[in-house]
Amino acid sequence: MAVPVAKDQFDRWLCDCYIDRISVSTNVQIILCKLGMAVSSLPFNRYSYSTIELAILRGIITATAIANRKKIGIWSKPDFILPYDFRQLTIY
Question: For the whole model, what pTM was predicted?
Fold first, then answer.
């Protein structure tokens, strides 16, 4: 289930995705972070968050930190490069 949040600069819908029902526990971003299969890249440019958006953001940060601490998924790879760091590399 996808819940539209906003449109990006290319007029594409940005959505929060859920499995079965809308809940922090079924949010796909949080689930992927818990499994160590995603890195949080949060949209801090928005300033008016709904209650569910705040819960999702908190869940993403918490899930990512726990997966990192437990060395789950990508966090178990010592040579993994975070997306932010990768974008800083000069590759020819």
Answer: 0.62
